[in-house]
Amino acid sequence: MAKQIQAIRGMNDIVPAQSPLWQKLEAVLRASVHAYGYSEIRTPIVESTDLFKRSIGEVTDIVEKEMYTFQDNNGDSLTLRPEGTASTVRAGNEHGLLYNQEQRLWYMGPMFRHERPQKGRYRQFHQFGVEVYGIGSADADAEVLMLSNRLWHKLGIQEHVKLEINTLGDSEERETYRQALIAFLEKHEDVLDEDAKRRMYSNPLRVLDTKNPDIQAILVNAPELMDYLGEESKTHFSHLCELLDAAGIQYIVNPRLVRGLDYYNRTVFEWVTSSLGAQGTVLAGGRYDGLVSQLGGKQSPAVGFAMGMERIILLLQELELAGDVAPAVDVYITAMGTGTQIQAVNIAEDLRESLPSLRVMSHCGGGNFKKQMKRADKSGAQFALVIGETELENNEVAVKDLRGNTEQQLVAKDELAAFLDERI
């Protein structure tokens, strides 16, 4: 017997028993962005490697250790996309969507990072994201946060997530702070672990995000980024806080929140939960005003977020909010006897035409009455339609309620659609 091939570690199948919950989540996401007037953009899952090196930053964990990169037959370096923003900017620049324009976009699809797989962190994972281009004011930041807050209410998890926000200022302010932070870290180099020492000069702000308790202890006395901000950056952040207060959205200002990607400036935020263990961030984003020009386009302000869909699925399951899985079928049609199969197929097609939302499954493969009814029950259908030679002769259909206590009924063929529409 040939060896069975299995899925790559960290890249998971979504089987039929799981897909209804995914479809439920996707429907909520689509309805929410529709309510805000956002437009969908779909980009390839494979991009030029340079796109992510230039946007995410060459000294980030993603680029250094996590990207799936390979050479194609032409010798070009390609990468499976590890996130969606860089691809969206690339597409916007390429198709002339961003210069001197406002765009509100959303995307949904698989991303890829070579990480150690664990609960809530996979090598192929799915993200939902929104991007707003051409608006540099804090009301755009507030809008994407209000949109994300609406998602939690629609999903019923608003009591289990909290919002943390911070500001990184502009590039000049951050550079001044960066030098001050490096000087502070140099004084405590004996406490730093190897990861912090590696980042100290290349990306020192990432040291603020350390999980090492010894380093966290010394960072209590580290310089605060807020002290290095100019009036414009402070006003932007203050206005955002005012808008969130007015909208009734509670938040925590976390001065250690910096995010892991180089392109962020000014506003950064994370929605976090304590219900998923170590993988507590369920949605994150911020402002990236320099990214469009960094990737070859004309200067355009931008703000957005990305949400890990697997983590939302896990959270819904953890909180027992996934709900019952709806059956895939409403009506199962059986046929027994000479000439009944053609009639059954025609009835199924007529029902699909007249009741488009009705889910109709026709029995295939023959078999006796007991076998066909067993299949009908297993399908989860509410009703079984039984077409025998007598029903065929009388132009009727026997309707059996598989989930209730009502008696089987004979219904005229031309009245069947109205009968089912009233009951399903």
Low-confidence stretches are none
- Work out the strand percent: 15-25%
Continuous helix count: 15
- Identify the strand order in the major beta sheet: 1-5-6-11-10-9-7-8
Report how far apart the termini are: 47 Å
Largest sheet: 8 strands, mixed
Mean pLDDT: 89
Q: Rough shape?
A: elongated
Q: How many β strands by DSSP? A: 16
Structural category is alpha+beta
Approximate helicity band: 25-40%
Oligomerization state of this entry?
Answer: single chain
Whole-angstrom Rg: 28 Å
Helices and strands in order:
Blueprint: H1 19-35, E1 39-40, E2 46-48, H2 49-56, H3 61-66, E3 69-71, E4 77-80, H4 85-94, E5 103-112, E6 124-133, H5 138-155, E7 162-167, H6 171-187, H7 194-202, H8 213-219, H9 231-246, E8 252-253, E9 265-272, E10 281-287, H10 291-294, E11 302-308, H11 309-318, E12 331-335, H12 340-354, E13 360-362, H13 369-378, E14 383-387, H14 389-394, E15 396-401, E16 409-412, H15 416-423
Parallel strand pairs: 1-5, 7-8, 12-13, 12-14
Antiparallel strand pairs: 2-4, 3-4, 5-6, 6-11, 7-9, 9-10, 10-11, 14-15, 15-16
Helix pairs in contact: 1-5, 5-9
